[in-house]
Amino acid sequence: MSSIDTLTGFPNRFGCLQMAEQLSSDAVVSGQPYAILWIDMDRFKQVNESFGHMGGDEVIKSLAIRFRTRMGGRAELCRMGADEFVLLVPRCDRDQAQRLATELCSTIEEPIAVGNLVLHPTASIGIAIFELGEGSLELLERADRAMLAAKTKGGQGVVCSGDEPIPGRLGVTLAREELAVENSLHFALENGGLCLHYQPIIHAHGHIEAVEALMRCSVNGESIPPGKFIPVAEKTGLIIRLGEWCLLQGAMHARRLFDAGYDTKVAINVSRAQLISPKFTQALHAALICSNAQPGQIELELTESLFMDVSDHVQRNLKNALAAGVRLAIDDFGTGYSCLANLKDIPAGKLKLDRAFVTVLPEDRRALSVVRAMTQLGHELGMTIVAEGCERQEEIDALLEVGVDAIQGYFYARPMPEEQLLPWLQQRSAT
Ligand code: C2E
Ligand code: MG
Ligand code: MG
C-alpha cells in the first residue's frame, strides 16, 4: 500500500501512522515529548462547490507548499484526506505547539488567488502532545478530537487536547473545570458538603433587620467559592436541588432562631431557574411545613434580572409565596438591565442596592445621587432599602445620610456558620 499522497507528495494516513510510531519510540528513548497538530480547513466544501474539484486541488497544493516553506524541516507534514493535514513535530511541548499553531494560522490565512477570485482560507487546529504509554493511533485521535472541538467553537481557532468542552451529566456542554465543579456539587449534596453561613443585616435603628443565608460548599476539606459553583449549578440545573436544600435549611434555621427568642428574618437567595420551575411553590410549602417556621420570618432574595420577563410560572410562584406569608426582596439592584420604572410592578418589600454603588462612596457624588434617588423611589413604593457590601464607616455614614434603612457588610460582620450566629446575636443584644 502506498504511503504517499499523490497530490501533495506528503505521506498519507498510512504514512502518517508509521511516522507517528517512529516518533513515539524516539520520544520514549529521549524522554522528550512530541506534538501532533491536526489541521482542517474551514468551509472547504464551499471551495469545492465554487471552484470545482480542480480548483479545490489547486488550493490544497498551494497550502501544502506554504506549510512546507513555513516549517522548513521543523515538522513532518502529512495529508490525511480531502482538506486535512497533520504535522508531526519532534521535541515539542504544549507551549511550543501552541505558538506553532498560531504561526500556522497566519500562514493559512494569507489570501489565495483561484482563477480571478480571491479566497480567504481559515482552519481549525487540534493539538495533542504524546504521553508515555499512549499508542500512536490514540494520540492521533486526540488531536482529531481537539480539532473537532475547535470546529465546534466556530472554526478559525486552536484547541489543545484536554481543553475541549465535554458534555455534563445534564447534557449541557461544560469546560473541564466546570465539570469538576459539577461533580463536586453532586458529591457535596450526597455527602454533607454543603452548609449555610449567615450574614447579619443591621437596621439604622440598631436592631438586626435579617440574616442572609449564603451557601458554602466544600469537598475533601477544600472549599469552592459561590462565585464558582453557583453559575455551574445554574447552568446544569443542579440549582433546583441546591435551592430546595437551602429553602429547607434556611427555614429550619429561622425556626431555631424563633425558638431561641429571635424573630429575625432569614433571607434565602433564589435563582431564576428555581422560580421559573412549576415545582417551586411545592418546594417552598414543603420547607415551611417541615420546618414549622413562621412564613413571615422567611424572605426570598430574587435578582432584578428576573423581572425583565416575568413568565406565568414566575408570576404564579411569586403570588403563591406572598399568599403563604413569605416576604420578597430584590437583590443586587442596579447591576442588571431593569430600570427604576420596573419597580412598581414587583411585589417586593425590600430593595438591596448592589455593592457597586457602595464601594465608590462617599467620594463619588454622582453615585450618591443615584443611591438617593433609588432610596426615595423605593420608599415611595413602601420598600425597605438595604445597602450591600459595606466595609467602611464613611460608606455607612453616606448611605444613612441619604436615607438607606439597613446595612449589610464586612464592617459589621462577615457571613458566619450557624453555631457562631446565636452567640453573635446574644452579644449584640447585650450591648
Ligand atoms: P449576594 O446574594 O448578593 O450575597 C452577598 C455577597 O456579598 C456574599 O458573597 C457576601 O459574602 C458578600 N459580601 C457581604 N458583605 C461584603 C463586604 O462587605 N465586602 C465584600 N467584598 N463582599 C461582601 P458570597 O457568599 O460569596 O455569595 C455570592 C453570591 O452567590 C451571592 O450574592 C448570591 O448571588 C450567590 N449565592 C450565595 N448563596 C446562594 C444560594 O444559597 N442560592 C443562590 N441561588 N445563590 C446564592
Ligand atoms: Mg443575596
Ligand atoms: Mg446581593
Task: Describe this protein's structure.
The chain is an alpha/beta fold and 431 residues long. The protein has two domains: 13-167, 2-Layer Sandwich (Alpha-Beta Plaits); 191-430, TIM Barrel, CATH 3.20.20.450. It contains 14 helices and 19 strands. The strands form four sheets. Strands 10-11-13-14-15-16-17-18 form an eight-stranded mixed β-barrel, surrounded by six helices. It has a five-stranded mixed β-sheet with strand order 2-3-1-6-7, with helices on both faces. The model has no long low-confidence stretch (mean pLDDT 92). The structure holds ligand C2E and magnesium ion (2 copies). Residues 212, 269, 301, 331 line the site of one magnesium ion.
Which ligands accompany this protein?
ligand C2E, magnesium ion
Q: Structural class of the helix and strand makeup?
A: alpha/beta
Helicity range = 40-55%
Low-confidence runs: none
Widest sheet: strand ordering: 10-11-13-14-15-16-17-18
CATH topology of the largest domain: TIM Barrel
User: Overall 3D geometry?
Assistant: elongated
Question: What would you say the CATH architecture of the largest domain is?
Answer: Alpha-Beta Barrel
What is the straight-line distance between the termini? Answer: 91 Å
Strand tally is 19
Work out the strand percent. Answer: 15-25%
The quaternary organization reads as single chain
Largest sheet: 8 strands, mixed, barrel
- Rg over CA atoms: 30 Å
Under CATH, the homologous superfamily of the largest domain reads: EAL domain
Q: How many separate domains make up the residues?
A: 2
Q: Provide a count of the helices.
A: 14
- Highest-level CATH class of the largest domain: Alpha Beta
